[in-house]
User: What shape does this take?
Amino acid sequence: MAPSRTRVRRTEQELDNEARERWDRLFVEEEVLQLALARVELPTSRDYSDDECSSPSPVYDRCLRVQGPERVLKMCNFAPVELERIWDAVEDHVMKHWNVGRGKKSANAPKGILYMTLAALKHCGSWETASAMFDMYPSPFQKMVKKFVTMLDPCLCQIFVLDEEGRSTMRHLTLTGNT
Assistant: This one.
């Protein structure tokens, strides 16, 4: 059968370049993962011989200890160092507003709840799936995460939206070519 007249014949070099591009696309995800893992810094060595209940955040610390920083990155999309930075930014607000007042107090540490919230938001599955990662029942897990997000919302809005809005206006971004 004769080749089509409308088909453009490509050179061997063009075919090789297309193959390289396809293969490069296959490895982009792996490269992104490797770059993310390069951001991971192990925390200073800790003495884990104590009971894990003595930890200020048993859920997060247990995950970091047992599964390593790579797993923390996979679960919540933040490297341990980045999670620490977020925690440093919101810690004062959380300590003032979480587990205060009358009513039942959460048994989980606030930093652990931040970690669980980020993991639940990343996976966006059912509450059953997210709660199973932390060995909790779905209903209390959902209630805890919703209350935590409601409490944390004004702080996050202030730090990451309003403060940034004051630093760089749309006019400034447009003039500098960053839009």
About this structure: Residues 138-167 form the longest helix (30 residues).
